[in-house]
Amino acid sequence: MDRYAARRDKLRRLIKKAKADALLITNFTNVTYLTGFTGDDSYLLVGGDEAVLLSDPRYTTQLKEECPGLATEIRPPGTSMMASIKKVAQRAKAAVLGIEATSMTVAVASAIGKELAGIELAPCNGLVEQLREIKDRHEIASLKGAVVQAERAFGVIRSSLRGEQTELAVAHEIEAQVRLFGGRGCSFPPIVAVGPRAALPHARPTNQTIDAAGFVLIDWGADGADGYKSDLTRVLVTGKISPKLEAIYRVVLRAQERAIAAIRPGVTGRKVDAVARKIIDDAGFGKYFGHGLGHGLGLDIHEGPRLAKNNDRPLKAGMVVTVEPGIYLPGFGGVRIEDDVLVTRGGHEVLTGVAKQWEESQLPW
Length: 365
Description:
The protein is of the alpha+beta class. It has ten helices and 18 strands. A six-stranded mixed beta sheet has the order 4-3-2-1-5-6, with helices on both faces. It has a three-stranded antiparallel beta sheet with strand order 8-9-11, covered by helices on one side. The protein has a three-stranded antiparallel beta sheet with strand order 14-17-18.
């Protein structure tokens, strides 16, 4: 059995537990996870022994290449997706059809309900996402590949960084380097923030030059060849060493290292977050750490699980999370250090290896 069929079998058990006869998957990322199909505008119906991908003639050849053996319903020109949904739902004899309400517009839900009069629609949210949290061997290998692409790109950027470069130019060069090393592009628009702008956790690159302040924060990742994503953050010291910056950096690094050390199966996301948050609180910077400690990684750059105050779910082997504490001081700047971590049966494995000790953050300018 291929890995996609195995995932669909796991999903069938969850569908049954949710008391639905079938599930209509409309989230394109979830369709990819369950089938390997990388196109869009296509839905998947899974129920009983059935799994049918609903698409259109643009993808006929691609479906045969990417999803050999998977049943398809290719609607001809002039036929609506709603008609195709009705056809496969009736063929599957689904009296109760689960839908992904969180990724579906009100208009689509209304249209499906109108087309499927007589079939009960039941919101079955998060079933596929629940499966996606636990990565299999193929996914872990893909994530590690995306990490390598991101790290190689950063190595080029770090060694060639010049003071006259702008934040925007560096961001563009990161993306170019990721592609040169085999990635499809960056996981998200890279954040390159100089000095005071590093106090913005999601700063947009500008024409500010790298030498405008004594340090720069770079947050980037690679969208790997098969869609799995990495996510890293480092701060580079580009000017005169600031005692204030060093103090903040060491606090953030200590918080991150302690939090990573706490990761193992059975520990909740809340507990790991609390480890890092206490160190930052005790150093007097608690109010300047305003986001959760981390998030899951996979086909999406942000997915479950979360390392945050409100997550009491225990971690499980196979989960991959970022660990990214930060301190952000308006007017001065911010420090965030981020690595990608796999939860293993015996504890954890740090997937990223870019240098991050204080002394290693300083450029020889």
